[in-house]
């Protein structure tokens, strides 16, 4: 299991307003000295006290060959957080290895369902872990 993080390979993003989406800055995987099999990718979301009951916040990993046109990475499930009874959600994280088909640039895109509450004080973290 990997446990080291490089501060230059961590991106954070405040969750968008309800009904909107936002993306982290990208990480250039070609700039790392590690091969894909030597790192994992982690998405982490702290507790979300204002996520409305039954509403979801979804974070997905996307890749791009040119750092312009991004698409979800095939075969990787997104991290979904759902507001519990009375609202709010516990912290959640997802750790994956990228498939061999992953392209050079990586980012996380977060979506908050319409009427999902004000979660803009919560930040998503995308990190490579070695």
Helix and strand topology:
Elements: E1 5-14, E2 21-23, E3 27-28, E4 40-45, E5 56-64, E6 71-72, E7 79-82, E8 92-96, E9 105-112, E10 123-129
Antiparallel strand pairs: 1-10, 2-9, 3-9, 4-8, 4-10, 5-6, 5-7, 5-9
| Arithmetic mean pLDDT | 93
How many distinct helices?
0
Order of helices and strands: EEEEEEEEEE
CATH topology call: Jelly Rolls
Question: If classified by CATH, what would the architecture be?
Answer: Sandwich
Compute the CA-based radius of gyration: 15 Å
Number of strands: 10
Classify the secondary structure makeup into a structural class: mainly beta
End-to-end separation: 9 Å
The tally of domains stands at 1
Please outline the major beta sheet. 6 strands, antiparallel
Overall outline = globular
What are the low-pLDDT stretches, counting only 5+ consecutive residues below 50?
none
Helix content: under 10%
- The amount of beta strand, in percent, is 35-45%
CATH class: Mainly Beta
Summarize the structure.
The protein is mostly beta strands. The protein has no helices and ten strands.
What does this structure look like?
Helices cover 0% and strands 43% of the residues. The protein has no helices and ten strands. With 130 residues, the chain is mainly beta. It has one domain (5-129): Jelly Rolls. The model has no long low-confidence stretch (mean pLDDT 93). Strand 5 (56-64) and strand 6 form a beta hairpin. The protein starts with a strand and ends with a strand.
């Amino acid at each position: 299991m990997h446990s080291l993080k490089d501060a230059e390979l961590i991106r954070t993003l405040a969750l968008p307003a309800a009904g909107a989406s936002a993306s982290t800055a990208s990480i250039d995987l070609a700039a790392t000295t590690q091969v894909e099999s030597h790192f994992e990718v982690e998405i982490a979301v702290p507790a979300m006290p204002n996520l409305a009951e039954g509403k979801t916040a979804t974070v997905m990993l996307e890749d791009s060959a040119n750092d312009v046109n991004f698409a979800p990475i095939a075969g990787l499930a997104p991290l979904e957080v759902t507001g519990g009874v009375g609202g709010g959600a516990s912290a959640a994280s997802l750790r994956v290895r990228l498939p061999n088909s992953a392209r050079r640039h990586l980012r996380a895109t977060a979506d908050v369902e319409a009427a999902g509450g004000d979660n803009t004080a919560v930040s998503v973290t995308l990190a490579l872990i070695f």
